[in-house]
């Protein structure tokens, strides 16, 4: 029970910030972390890792929060950064993997301030957006992918604190780290932190959330998937990308099925069950 509170509370996407309800910002609603649960919640809006990808041509700026969609988001912006070069290099939006991404070090920033400085375009003149995921889904998907399935980092015995399939072990350790980060006892961040700290700590939301369009993530097996693609398409059109190009982008995304999606995997079902048990 207490564990359950901790699980849900440190994941929550905070909704009560005075600036979140301004016209451009949409929040992910959640019924957790309110009332008595609040004391188990981590402080919202800490300053944390932020990764920006920009297309100057369209004054389009995306902050990518680690999750599977982030690779595709970055690829869309990369394509719009230099459409010709991207195509000439035979890249495609759904196959431009993170490690070999075409735009590496070309349109990438870590602070909004640096973007404004380099482009001389103030933040208010950019179309800014990000994709955020339901915090519990994000946690489960991240846990299954990073702590259980991912083989890339199997050489590191301490991956996910060496907790393996022990969910409560991982949650305890990660929560403890998060608290230390809040109080300033830890200043660095790890691979795990980037994938599991609250989304509201990213993207310099503490000062800039009112600038953002926030699209709610949907897996490609969910009913909301089409809606998410439509919202993305709207944002691209707002920034001046022509309709044909927008359609080309969404078509490509639609046609790709991420082999990686964990939504229906047996491991995922197992973790869902575990979490349900913990919550009751
Ligand atoms: C809300 O936005 C305004 C205008 O950008 C800013 O001055 C203010 O500090 C923000 N409030 C909070 C609580 O971040
Ligand atoms: C892209 O593909 C075309 C046709 O397959 C090929 O001729 C060209 O060399 C490729 N370009 C690059 C940069 O790989
Ligand atoms: C899981 O980890 C916790 C805390 O690290 C430990 O107390 C518990 O015995 C572990 N459970 C299993 C099944 O290994
Ligand atoms: C489509 C896509 O972006 N898939 C990626 C999901 O995340 C894993 C691990 O980070 C990548 O290996 C996949 O390529």
UniProtKB/TrEMBL annotation:
Cellular-component GO terms for this entry: membrane
What is the organism field in this record?
Acrobeloides nanus
Cross-referenced Pfam families: Sulfotransfer_2
Tell me the protein's name: Uncharacterized protein
Query: Is Nucleotidyltransferase a UniProt keyword of this protein?
Result: no
| UniProt keyword annotations, A-Z | Signal
* Secretion signal span: 1-18
> One GO BP annotation here?
chondroitin sulfate proteoglycan biosynthetic process
Q: Which domain of life is it from?
A: Eukaryota
């Amino acid at each position: 029970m207490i564990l359950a509170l901790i699980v849900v509370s440190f994941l929550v996407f905070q909704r009560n910030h005075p600036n979140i309800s301004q016209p451009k910002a949409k929040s992910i609603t959640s019924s957790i972390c309110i009332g008595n649960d609040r004391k188990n919640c981590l402080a919202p809006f800490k300053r944390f890792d932020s990764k920006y990808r920009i297309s100057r041509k369209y004054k389009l700026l995306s902050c990518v929060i680690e999750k599977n969609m982030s690779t595709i988001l970055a690829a869309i912006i990369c394509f719009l950064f230099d459409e010709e070069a991207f195509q000439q290099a035979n890249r495609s939006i759904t196959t431009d993997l993170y490690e070999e991404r075409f735009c590496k070090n070309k349109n990438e920033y870590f602070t909004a301030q640096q973007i404004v400085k380099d482009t001389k375009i103030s933040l208010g003149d950019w179309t800014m957006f990000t994709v955020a995921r339901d915090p519990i889904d994000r946690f489960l998907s991240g846990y299954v992918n990073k702590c259980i399935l991912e083989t890339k980092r199997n050489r590191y015995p301490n991956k996910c604190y060496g907790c393996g399939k022990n969910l409560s072990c991982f949650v305890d350790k990660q929560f403890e780290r998060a608290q230390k980060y809040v109080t300033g006892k830890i200043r660095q961040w790890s691979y795990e932190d980037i994938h599991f700290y609250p989304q509201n700590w990213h993207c310099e939301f503490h000062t800039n959330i009112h600038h953002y369009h926030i699209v709610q993530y949907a897996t490609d097996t969910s009913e909301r998937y089409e809606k998410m693609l439509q919202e993305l398409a709207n944002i691209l059109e707002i920034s001046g990308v022509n309709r044909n190009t927008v359609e080309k982008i969404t078509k490509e995304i639609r046609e790709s099925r991420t082999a990686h999606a964990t939504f229906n995997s047996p491991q995922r079902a197992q973790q869902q069950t575990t979490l349900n048990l913990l919550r009751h």
